[in-house]
Design brief:
Order of helices and strands: HEEEE
Number of helices: 1
Strand content: 25-35%
Oligomer: single chain
Radius of gyration: 26 Å
Largest sheet: 2 strands, antiparallel
Length: 98
């Protein structure tokens, strides 16, 4: 009887720990600094939606790093740079009153 009790107790504890780990919040790579592959190296991608977008595709659009030179894919799609147009290249300056 003791053997069955210990077996059930061990099973319950194992399932409890496994369930707790399975429901723990996962890291969201989209909040990390994003990089894109240039063909010969990685460059900072900027801010998603402001500097670049990921069009529909099966490629890896942006990558994140662990700080030791290891990059892993984060966003899926085709990298597309957003070119911002400066409609006012010469901003008005304040004139001094005399």
């Amino acid at each position: 009887m003791k053997r069955i009790k210990w077996t059930i107790m061990t099973l319950i504890i194992s399932l409890s720990v496994g369930g707790a780990l399975a429901t723990a919040p996962q890291h969201d790579c989209r909040t990390d600094t994003q990089y894109y592959w240039t063909g010969s190296g990685y460059m900072p991608a900027g801010v998603w939606g402001t500097n670049y977008l990921c069009d529909v595709g099966s490629n890896i659009c942006s990558y994140t790093t662990d700080g030791f030179g290891n990059y892993s894919g984060c966003r899926q799609g085709n990298y597309r740079l957003i070119v911002a147009l400066n409609n006012n290249p010469d901003p008005k300056t304040k004139t001094s009153k005399k």
